[in-house]
Amino acid sequence: MIFLLIILAPFLYGIIASLLFMRFYAFASAFAISVSQALNCAYAEFFNHALLKSKGPYLFGDPNETTSYVLGRNRKIDNLTLVGLGLAKFLNWLDPNHVEDASETPQ
Residue 7 falls within a domain, yes or no? Predict the structure, then answer.
């Protein structure tokens, strides 16, 4: 119970406060970037193996880069496997040109 309060209370406060002050998009965007950076680090070895054709100049694992950034960089140099291309296409379906735009954004 205490664990839930420690984890969920600040998160719920952030959502409620951002809704009250009309900043929900900024909150959701920052949250999504943080999750993407965490996934980039936590699953670096798996992503490097499953999503990349070869160990190129843009590898997963940098805590300051998002997963979309690394996908976009590798897509530009044709270094994505079929699974990597599928993930990039899915992200682009959700948000047109997502990985391309992310690869151009300074990290």
Answer: no
Q: Which of 9-13, 33-37, 48-52, 79-83 has the lowest mean pLDDT?
A: 9-13
Contact 52, 79 (CB under 8 A): yes
Does 1 have pLDDT greater than 70?
A: no
Q: For residue 58, what are the domain limits?
A: 33-104
Which among 75, 65, 78 is positioned nearest to 106, based on CA atoms?
A: 65
Pick the closest to residue 59 from 76, 50, 75, 47 (CA basis). Answer: 47
Which tens digit of pLDDT belongs to each residue from 29-71? Answer: 888 899 999 999 999 999 999 999 998 889 999 999 999 999 9
Q: How many domains does the chain contain in total?
A: 1
Task: Look up tokens 């600040």; give the residue.
Answer: 10
Q: Is the Cβ–Cβ distance between 34 and 64 less than 8 Å? A: no
Instruction: Determine what percent of the chain falls in helix, strand and coil, rounding each to the nearest 5.
Output: 70, 0, 25
